[in-house]
């Protein structure tokens, strides 16, 4: 599934879904007449449920796909429902414009039973990166992290304007059939939670994503995710990948908030398993640079690439470090 994307004849498209794309062949495709739900929901979050589906290809061939359905709550107002739908449509426009081997491919969208709206993507049988590493503890963590770096470098360097992921964590990195990292879920959950919570919280303060991956500046009212907060979250994700546990694992959520707001960073894991997984001094030095309190003092993703391509890393992991 790494190189074989669905090839479908382009149907007519609602003008609202027209997007500028890195590839002239990548446009949102209406798959409503070509996909069926097979099983589910298999998993879900605060805003979406994931179903297993099947898509009909050329010559009668079929392929298993993931179908992400927007979860609309009965107590939502018409305005909230409309805003959630707009956010879902926005993700379609954004996701369909991406063209990178380490970003989950977007096949199209579908409406089922006239009222259920889905985003369609390849089925990642290996699950997310943490599930994969639990089943394959000997997997090359360095290589997977480099693939995540490549995806973020692509997002942050997009022209004419960079794209911020906004919700980096282990749940949002899937593993392809071939064992490659695929970044996914570009902040949709966080944005819908924000929309749904605005009328529920007097202060207007809204959910900001997983607290253990959140940069200190995002705890301030009105601050939005940036490339710099992505860098902070990336470092926390690296800790999660090497340790198999979330950052600040010894602290409660309120304690994490206090530590982060006071400029603290996660303690370096010193257990034997983490060292064997490859968390070296070089990696920890990079993590500490990416988690400094002030956003302007964190390296950019391009600088992270240069650090990983330096002699310090390339001599230690010559097979993994490649940005060609």
UniProtKB/TrEMBL annotation:
PROSITE patterns: PROTEIN_KINASE_DOM, PROTEIN_KINASE_ST
Protein keywords: ATP-binding, Nucleotide-binding
SUPFAM superfamilies the record matches: Protein kinase-like (PK-like)
GO molecular function, a single term: protein kinase activity
GO terms for biological process, alphabetical: necroptotic signaling pathway
Protein name, per record: Protein kinase domain-containing protein
Record organism: Jaapia argillacea MUCL 33604
Domain of life: Eukaryota
Domain Protein kinase: 36-313
């Amino acid at each position: 599934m790494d190189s074989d994307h669905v090839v479908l004849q382009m149907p007519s498209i609602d003008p609202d879904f027209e997007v500028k794309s890195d590839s002239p062949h990548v446009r949102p495709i209406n798959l409503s007449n070509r996909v069926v739900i097979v099983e589910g929901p298999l998993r879900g979050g605060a805003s979406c449920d994931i179903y297993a589906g099947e898509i009909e290809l050329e010559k009668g061939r079929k392929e298993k796909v993931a179908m992400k359905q927007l979860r609309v709550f009965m107590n939502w107002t018409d305005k909230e429902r409309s805003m959630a739908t707009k956010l879902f449509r926005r993700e379609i426009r954004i996701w369909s414009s991406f063209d990178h081997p380490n970003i989950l491919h977007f096949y199209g969208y579908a409406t089922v039973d006239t009222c259920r709206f889905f985003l369609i993507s390849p089925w990642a049988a290996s699950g997310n990166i943490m599930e994969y590493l639990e089943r394959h503890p000997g997997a090359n963590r360095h290589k997977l992290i480099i693939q995540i770096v490549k995806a973020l470098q692509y997002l942050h360097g997009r022209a004419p304007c960079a794209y911020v992921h906004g919700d980096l964590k282990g749940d949002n990195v899937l593993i392809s059939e071939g064992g490659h990292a695929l970044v996914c879920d570009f902040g949709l959950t966080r944005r819908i939670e924000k929309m749904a919570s605005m009328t529920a919280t007097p202060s207007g303060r809204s959910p900001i994503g997983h607290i253990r991956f959140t940069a200190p500046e995002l705890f301030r009212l009105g601050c939005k995710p940036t490339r710099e907060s992505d860098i902070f979250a990336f470092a926390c994700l690296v800790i999660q990948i090497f340790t198999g546990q979330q950052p600040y694992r010894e602290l409660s959520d309120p304690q994490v908030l206090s530590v982060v707001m006071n400029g603290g960073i996660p303690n370096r894991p010193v257990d034997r398993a983490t060292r064997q997984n490859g968390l070296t001094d070089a990696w920890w030095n990079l993590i500490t640079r990416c988690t400094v309190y002030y956003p302007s003092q964190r390296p950019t993703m391009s600088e992270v690439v240069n650090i990983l391509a330096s002699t310090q890393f390339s001599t230690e992991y010559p097979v993994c470090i490649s940005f060609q």
